[in-house]
Amino acid sequence: MNYANSSVSFRRRSRRSRARKRRAAAIAGLLAFMVGVLLVAHAHSASSRLAPEVLPAPAVEQAVPRASFVAWSNVDRTRLSASLESAFAPAIAGAQGWSLAVVGGDGSIVYDDRAHDAVAPASVQKLIVASTALDALGPAYRFRTLFAGPQGIAGDGSLDGDLWLIGSGDPSLTSDDIRNGIGLLARSGLRRVQGALVVDATALRGPALNPHWAPDDNGQDYAAPTSAISVDGDTIESQQEINGVEERLWTPMTDVPAYVAGRVNAMLVQDGIQAANPPAVGAAPLESVVLWAHRSAPLAVLEAHMLFVSDNHYAEQLLRAVGGATLDRPDDAGGIAAEREYLSRLGIPAPGLRLLDGSGLSPQNRVAAITLARLLLAQEPSLYQLLPRGGREGTLEDYDFTTALGRVRAKSGHLSGVSSLAGYVVTPRHGRVTFAFLIDGSPADPDAAIVRAVDRLAQF
Description:
The radius of gyration is 23 Å and the shape is elongated. It is of the alpha/beta class. A hairpin with a 2-residue loop joins strand 9 (235-242) and strand 10. The protein has 2 domains: 7-140 and 300-457, Beta-lactamase (3-Layer(aba) Sandwich); 144-296, D-tyrosyl-trna(Tyr) Deacylase, Chain: A, CATH 3.50.80. Helix 3 (74-92) packs antiparallel against helix 12 (446-457) and helix 8 (312-327) crosses helix 9. The longest helix has 25 residues, at 7-31. It has a 5-stranded antiparallel β-sheet with strand order 2-1-17-16-15, with helices on both faces. A 5-stranded mixed β-sheet has the order 12-8-6-4-13, covered by helices on one side. The chain has helices at 7-31, 34-47, 74-92, 126-137, 175-187, 256-270, 299-309, 312-327, 332-346, 369-378, 380-383, 446-457, and strands at residues 97-103, 109-113, 118-119, 144-149, 158-159, 163-166, 192-193, 197-200, 235-242, 245-252, 274-275, 280-281, 289-295, 367-368, 408-415, 418-427, 431-440.
């Protein structure tokens, strides 16, 4: 989510975050058509990370033929530097730190103000896990959630032994998905489980809550736990009266596998399926018979949701999935090691890089603007269409762009005292460029300065 700088608006936005996610489900349907295109883009970028784009450009970008784009001259760079320095001056005066970079389509550094200084990135850090996951898993990858048993359902409606619910880390799995699976089991004739419902959450490892998150994040829905058997974002919905108004709230689960086991067991009973033993948590045996399999939407669609609404839970789940897929270490350390290896393989500079989670929620993370700007350029075909358009959708819907409206796609980031934006801008003379603007501890209005800077960049 797009973090607010004040605690009041922070909590208010937190209560609205799930509503945004439901709206994002509609966006995901629209974005599904991108998957085929992204498959081509992924294959193309695997052979040449700096190759020309292969995705169709938005209408506003087609107004300027690519052949007419010109290289940045020294005069252009000087003019841009003066314009951006003026835009940023109120925000960086007295700021604790900043890191600002613009990279041209040819890979040249067009603007650099402490671009190699690593500062707190907030949610723009999600660009790293998104890129790494697309590379490691592929845009068409789907998480699978299974009901399995030691053998099939017997003719008398019984299942000899336990019924296992096996998770793979799908961040989008919902209670309705599980109900659909139970409905299929019931229609297949299952009535009795001779053992117990056993939830297998061994696909991912590590603490449920990241120890590097701020203590005041505990209990907030944007800081939900991470689990291989994630259901409903690992949150529990409730109704509460706040200032005389009934509002829907989401509280993070505690001991996710155990909670899910109890919840799913109750669903089984509701559908007329009784287990002989109480629900439990454990590892399913290697030999089992799949009774139901649920596949998530393709990874590209999941990431579009993650980047549009800045979903922390998706980022944390993806981080551990990446660690498991690349290094057989499905925990935070494994995922972070995979991210570092990925950046190194692409030749992305990472001065002062410190990654402690996937979402950017930890205030101790550190990323330099040059890292993000170079990454955006290297993975332009894969990332560009997954980002919201500035001033129109997602976390950028309320950004008041003027000249950049319709020309920018980007990822925003906010923590208390941190404002950041990183993405792409289409300039009329120089084509599409990448930028990363990160400002920490500004006593002024860094968001306004960043929007002003992007508007000015869009004029070149």
